[in-house]
């Protein structure tokens, strides 16, 4: 069903919104609307919102839904506005519904190892609060210091430690969700097992705000690992060798918590960014971490490094030294984005096919010299983030960018993978639904959308189109 935009008077709409929003704020000034309507650094289609609502309560969210239905207005949900796929940009006449101000940890139960949080709680803040109780929150996206749990759930965000601890989906126990008609659903609970009904909790995880607005989340917490944690930075001659070593580490029985890969282009960029030649000219690098490692585990790591003739390896058990190692990964994005325009992609393939995808990306980089492509990602689960860059001096994005993305997507699917591993679909990739899912599954997806949102008001043009 297409959108049927309101013909009502704008003042009438705003007056009604303000009546409905008791605990939050309704903003209609131009600066606020422009700032909230679109992300400056992402290409995509966007419009200008009619109003920005910073919700302060579940009742506020329900009030926004009442206004949307009454005036036939789209609702675009935002949390911390960190989407990389134009997932939270406005469409014209939309109400932007921000849950960022709903940012309380409502309960942290150390005995049963769970937490109940509002959607605006920052990922890292929850993790730090849990650590004070001897626990931790496992999902750790690169944006964990600024992204909210609500946005993480809506996109099923992954993270650096996903190879062992899973993505957000694997750590959600329950949700409270406001539907398009204003009803509040209470899904899941505080136990890891529940057999009644269909698993609607997991349906909403990764739904990108298209089925309802997440207003409360119950997540599981894990005990902090005992003993030493070993982190390493190992340099390989190329990504093929790195991929083989990664496979051996995964299958060795030591259960790595982190396996992060960077290709030679990425290492060169980080080297220049740091003004440090240590990484320049290296073929590929793997940052790995093993929690609760034994002496036997350390020997296994050493044997694998020897087997693949690692050119250099730094190992650390001291937290301060580990911070130095992980800072290489943290410097990656500023190194790539400084002085360049860029599109960062998100594909996942079976780990045994990862090197083949890297070969395709390298060939495309050679074929289109006006572009630079930097490839890094989560080697432990085959989730790569090739970043296609071009000169900031260009007035428009080169057409070759679209050609390269199309060929990368096609290759990822050919290898049995996906073109969206952990960054969601948003508006950038929804036209690929039919290609990746097939017509029958795509049809079912639209039926689910129609069931929960028959007026097609929630996050239009996202996830499915």
Automatic annotation (TrEMBL):
GO molecular function: oxidoreductase activity
Domain FAD-binding PCMH-type: 45-224
Keyword annotations of the record: FAD, Flavoprotein, Oxidoreductase
Pfam families in UniProt: FAD-oxidase_C, FAD_binding_4
KW Lipoprotein (keyword) present: no
Family according to the record: Belongs to the FAD-binding oxidoreductase/transferase type 4 family.
Name this protein carries in UniProt: FAD-binding protein
Organism: Lactobacillus delbrueckii
């Amino acid at each position: 069903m297409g959108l049927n935009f309101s013909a009502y008077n704008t003042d009438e709409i705003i007056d009604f919104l303000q009546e409905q929003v008791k605990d939050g704020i309704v903003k209609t000034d131009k600066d606020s609307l422009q700032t909230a309507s679109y992300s400056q650094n992402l290409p995509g289609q966007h419009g200008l919102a009619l109003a920005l609502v910073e919700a302060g309560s579940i009742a506020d969210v329900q009030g926004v839904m009442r206004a949307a239905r009454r005036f036939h207005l789209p609702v675009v949900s935002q949390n911390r506005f960190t989407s990389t796929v134009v997932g939270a940009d406005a469409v014209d006449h939309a109400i932007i519904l921000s849950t960022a101000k709903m940012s309380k940890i409502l309960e942290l139960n150390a005995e049963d190892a769970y937490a109940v949080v509002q959607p605006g709680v920052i990922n890292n803040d929850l993790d730090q609060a849990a650590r004070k109780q001897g626990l931790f929150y496992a999902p750790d996206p690169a944006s964990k210091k600024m992204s909210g749990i609500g946005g993480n759930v809506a996109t099923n965000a992954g993270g650096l430690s996903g190879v062992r601890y899973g993505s957000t989906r694997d750590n959600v126990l329950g949700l409270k969700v406001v539907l398009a008609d204003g009803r509040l659903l209470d899904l899941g609970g505080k136990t890891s097992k529940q057999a009644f009904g269909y698993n609607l909790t997991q349906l909403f995880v990764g739904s990108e705000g298209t089925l309802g607005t997440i207003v409360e989340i119950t997540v599981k917490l894990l005990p902090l690992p005992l003993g030493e944690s070993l982190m390493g930075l190992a340099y390989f001659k190329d990504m093929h060798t790195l991929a083989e070593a990664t496979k051996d580490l995964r299958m060795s029985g030591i259960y790595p918590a982190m396996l992060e890969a960077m290709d030679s282009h990425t290492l060169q960029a980080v080297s220049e960014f740091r003004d440090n030649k240590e990484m320049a000219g290296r073929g590929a690098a793997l940052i790995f971490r093993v929690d609760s490692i034994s002496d036997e585990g350390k020997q296994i790591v050493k044997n694998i490094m020897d087997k693949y003739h690692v050119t250099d390896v730094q190992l650390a058990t001291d937290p301060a030294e580990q911070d130095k190692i992980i800072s290489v990964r943290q410097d990656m994005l500023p190194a790539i984005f400084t002085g360049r325009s860029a599109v960062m992609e998100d594909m996942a393939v079976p780990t045994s096919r990862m090197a083949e995808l890297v070969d395709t990306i390298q060939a495309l980089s050679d074929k289109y010299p006006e572009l630079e492509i930097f490839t890094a990602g989560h080697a432990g689960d085959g989730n790569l983030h090739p970043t296609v860059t071009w000169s900031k001096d260009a007035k428009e994005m080169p057409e070759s960018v679209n050609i390269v993305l199309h060929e990368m997507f096609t290759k990822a699917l050919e290898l049995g993978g996906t073109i969206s591993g952990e960054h969601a679909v948003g508006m950038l990739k929804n036209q690929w639904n039919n290609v990746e899912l097939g017509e029958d599954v795509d049809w079912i997806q639209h039926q689910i959308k129609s069931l929960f949102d028959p007026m097609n008001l929630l996050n239009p043009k996202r996830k499915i189109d």
